[in-house]
Design goal:
Chain lengths: 164, 102
């Protein structure tokens, strides 16, 4: 399990570095998604299975897709010729294959049970969230509401300043 | 719980944070600035989870969830602002957005 942590951490750093240095925004996003998946493996190894799932679902899933939608709305006209160019996919695909091989090793060879570090159970996190941290949860929900309203208001544009 | 693993996790978080910081400082595209901010938030969350694992306390993972919420709200508002900036001025280069300079 330790080796898996080292390898996936290296994958995360390499692909994040590649993401920051790309010129094309969509290619950078591909690299960044692979990097987030690598970080998720590291999170799982540190005994935070729930955080790892959230990392995949929300960070690599929802937020990155949000970025992708905005990139499409901005219509960055850097590539018109082909829908998919193989050369752009090779780098992220190789890094993702490394992560997939790790997954297979974990599922088949190594026992799937123990994380490398001692785990903090999700039940502990939940009871802590709704125990001493209840106010923080409320604040986070207010923050998310403000984010939704703000994004809606800013994204609507100012065609007519209607209804004011 | 090996100390080596904790050190590696913290080093990994620091490296990711530095990559994000370099992206914020050196990229001249607002979209990449926001992307790098996400990287930095992610690295901070990783450091919190490593600390939670080191001391066997759930508080670090709670902070990870809070960082997740902050990052989602920040991405939504920031992307809406980027769309607005692109609509108004047609560029995403922060050096060209100098109308406030007077």
């Amino acid at each position: 399990m330790n080796g898996i942590v080292w390898i996936s951490g290296a994958v995360a750093v390499i692909s994040t570095l590649a993401a920051v240095t790309r010129r094309n925004a969509v290619h950078a996003l591909l690299y960044l998604i692979v990097g987030m998946l690598g970080v998720a493996v590291v999170l799982f190894a540190f005994g935070a299975a729930f955080a790892a799932v959230l990392q995949v679902v929300i960070w690599a899933g929802a937020i990155m897709v949000l970025f992708l939608f905005v990139m499409m709305m901005l219509s960055l006209r850097t590539e018109k010729r082909a829908a998919v160019r193989l050369r752009a996919i090779i780098g992220p695909a190789l890094l993702a294959v490394v992560l997939a091989v790790e997954l297979m090793v974990v599922m088949t060879v190594a026992p799937p049970q123990p994380p490398a570090a001692a785990a903090v159970q999700p039940e502990q996190v939940g009871s802590s969230l709704y125990g001493p941290y209840a106010v923080v949860v409320e604040l986070a929900s207010v923050l998310l509401l403000v984010g939704v309203v703000g994004a809606f208001h800013l994204g609507r544009g100012r065609e007519k300043d209607e209804g004011r | 719980m090996t100390t080596v693993l904790v050190q590696y996790g913290l080093l990994l978080a620091a490296a990711l944070f530095l990559v994000g910081l370099a992206g914020v400082l050196f990229r001249r595209n607002l979209l990449f600035t926001l992307l790098s901010l996400e990287i930095m938030l992610n690295a901070a969350g990783l450091a919190f989870v490593v600390a939670a694992s080191r001391w066997q306390q759930p508080d670090g993972q709670v902070m990870f969830l809070i960082i997740l919420a902050v990052s989602a709200a920040e991405a939504a508002v920031g992307l809406a602002l980027i769309l607005g900036i692109h609509r108004e001025s047609g560029t995403l280069d922060p050096d060209e957005l100098s109308r406030l300079r007077g």
